[in-house]
Amino acid sequence: xxxxxxxxxxxxxxxxxxxxxxxxxxxxxxxxxxxxxxxxxxxxxxxxxxxxxxxxxxxxxxxxxxxxxxxxxxxxxxxxxxxxxxxxxxxxxxxxxxxxxxxxxxxxxxxxxxxxxxxxxxxxxxxxxxxxxxxxxxxxxxxxxxxxxxxxxxxxxxxxxxxxxxxxxxxxxxxxxxxxxxxxxxxxxxxxxxxxxxxxxxxxxxxxxxxxxxxxxxxxxxxxxxxxxxxxxxxxxxxxxxxxxxxxxxxxxxxxxxxxxxxxxxxxxxxxxxxxxxxxxxxxxxxxxxxxxxxxxxxxxxxxxxxxxxxxxxxxxxxxxxxxxxxxxxxxxxxxxxxxxxxxxxxxxxxxxxxxxxxxxxxxxxxxxxxxxxxxxxxxxxxxxxxxxxxxxxxxxxxxxxxxxxxxxxxxxxxxxxxxxxxxxxxxxxxxxxxxxxxxxxxxxxxxxxxxxxxxxx
Length: 458
Ligand code: BES
Ligand code: MN
Hints:
The protein is of the alpha+beta class. The chain has helices spanning 2-10, 12-23, 35-52, 118-137, 161-167, 169-172, 215-218, 225-234, 257-264, 270-277, 290-295, 336-350, 375-388, 403-411, 436-454; strands spanning 55-59, 66-70, 81-87, 107-109, 112-114, 145-151, 176-179, 191-196, 198-207, 213-214, 299-307, 317-318, 321-330, 356-365, 368-369, 393-397, 415-417, 433-435.
């Protein structure tokens, strides 16, 4: 173990340089013009894994390729096998003018690495990769077989991976999946995340007149699609933050007392949180703490809203149409498809006959929940404690990683979510960052974790 830790220390500068090289790729999976960059990033990763001495293959898909890296030639029967998942694709960078440094020119200031993808998710899985390198390069035997699966479509709702899992089911069968693609409250409170919210996306379009009309000549005699859309959407939530869609809460699993107590142990300062987000006051469903609201309750957000004239100055029109992109975050045991149907039905019912309503259903991901008291979870908690040098907490998260449910249903494996990101890392936002202290703790975690998990009787 000392040999490995010494190796990590000795090579840390190079690791950070390499992580910067990795972040330099604009691997934005959502934007077709970056297709080549996504591919180049995958190629770089393959080359990098091979240099470390891991058997690595690139698997093209209809979308972006999947990188598969194995620390073994052939599975040893009886030896534990773990799957480490990550994604090399990143979110778009706009609005670009809010970035202090260009998003794909990584820069280190005060021990913090800035760049798109630094924490979501390149830095986090790279820490694990470097821990594996330390095992291999010091000639230390790993206590288990390890497969790394790094995909390139996570940020776009990953359509290729479930099929890939099915196709490679026997090779990928494992004792547990490990993911570091989420957060912790601070470095003194590492955590095991045992629940994620699900997601259900839709687009709502309201169509009125055949073309934009003069608002003075016609406004008042025809309905305004933008106003109708605003009224429809505004009515989906009441003043207490409760959603008004009939049936929406039917399947919501209430928070247990154990969970509420565990959540209360997670440090939280309302003032600090408010400042972090830049809001004058918090808002959330009545009867729940902010942490419960954002991780254990269903919510609906408008992600984008478009209608009418967006240019400079004014243009007096009744717009022909208005549209909104929405997502709901869901909790166990809500079913995304069923929820989308409820929303569609409700919108149809409340939409006035003065406009045409078009509802387009989008991608879905089931919520995730795994017992935080199982043997694997406990082993992971132990590893967290050793790596961070303090007592870990149990966390629920509000974000979604839909593939964790496929790991469960297709591979029969539970996922241990061991986040390395901090609350102010700005994922999906301008000035995304990754604290190099998180990188270091992540590498240490990657050193101790596998023996903890492997010692665990199945
Ligand atoms: N890593 C995040 C999800 C996340 C972040 C989970 C923090 C828990 C804590 C992931 O890359 C992500 O952003 N996922 C998308 C999924 C969506 C596009 C289907 C999300 O949650 O919006
Ligand atoms: Mn991510």
